[in-house]
Specification:
254 residues, alpha+beta, 6 helices, elongated
Length: 254
């Protein structure tokens, strides 16, 4: 009997899926992939590649979810997830969103260890971008640009000079949605010296200083101007994007 028969209503097939998820609970330690193989053997599942992608992806996402819930991703966990992916015969494109989220979590883990990322010079984001002498781009994210008169009832998390970022604090703040004026889109760069926006028709930058007023949200960042506010809404839908921005600004604004 192959995994392709799981949807046929057979109790053994359902039992395999549930036991596989149960085996992936708790910390993702080395040997989880071997444990899955043992579960498959007990339920006479021979070839994972025979199964529908949806169910194989569901099992993989269970393992990935355990790691994401703890808020960090180690090299050993990366290795074990790769083994689980191989056992389930899942191609990268079949779990593209999950792999993308895990890559962001890995970036976040490295930042919290003090190792800041770098935007590759050949990245599409860097096309047509000129940095100042001594400036390094550590992160780039696509954003929508919005104009807003006031912060309203959703002020966000204030990024303060030489102050650590409180983990997950930005996630609790919803992005202002009412009364915003759309101005276009482009890339937001977090460099070692400033926040820098580059769009098709405009560019703007704010240097880091004790006087800079940045406010973080789950879905973006608000820059307070002398009159009004500029909102930069992340086009990325990953929860880790807000955390990466928060941790980077805390590391660089000092």
């Amino acid at each position: 009997m192959g995994i392709k028969d799981w949807l046929g209503g057979d109790k053994k097939k359902e039992a395999f899926r549930e036991e596989a998820k149960e085996a992936l609970k708790g910390k993702l330690t080395p040997g989880k992939a071997d444990q899955l193989a043992q579960v498959a053997k007990r339920h006479a599942v021979d070839n994972p590649a025979d199964d529908k992608t949806q169910l194989r992806r569901e099992v993989f996402n269970k393992a990935a979810g355990v790691v994401r819930a703890q808020g960090r991703l180690s090299s050993k966990e990366i290795e074990e997830l790769a083994k689980i992916q191989k056992f389930l015969a899942l191609r990268d494109d079949q779990i593209e969103r999950t792999k993308w989220d895990l890559a962001k979590l890995r970036t976040l883990t490295e930042i919290r260890k003090g190792k800041l990322p770098l935007v590759p010079a050949n990245s599409a984001a860097m096309r047509g971008v000129s940095l100042n002498p001594g400036e390094t781009a550590h992160y780039a994210v696509q954003v929508e640009v919005l104009d807003r008169g006031s912060a309203g009832a959703q002020p966000g998390v204030h990024v303060k000079w030489a102050t650590p970022y409180a983990i997950n604090s930005a996630k609790a703040h919803a992005f202002p949605t009412e009364g915003n004026k759309e101005l276009g889109e482009g890339y937001l760069f977090i460099t070692n010296k400033r926040l820098f926006f580059k769009g098709e028709n405009r560019a703007a930058a704010v240097d880091y200083s004790p006087q800079a007023n940045f406010f973080l949200y789950r879905d973006g960042i608000r820059l307070e101007r002398n009159v009004g506010n500029t909102l930069l809404k992340y086009k990325s839908r990953s929860d880790e994007t807000a955390e990466i921005v928060g941790e980077l600004l805390a590391a660089l604004m000092r």
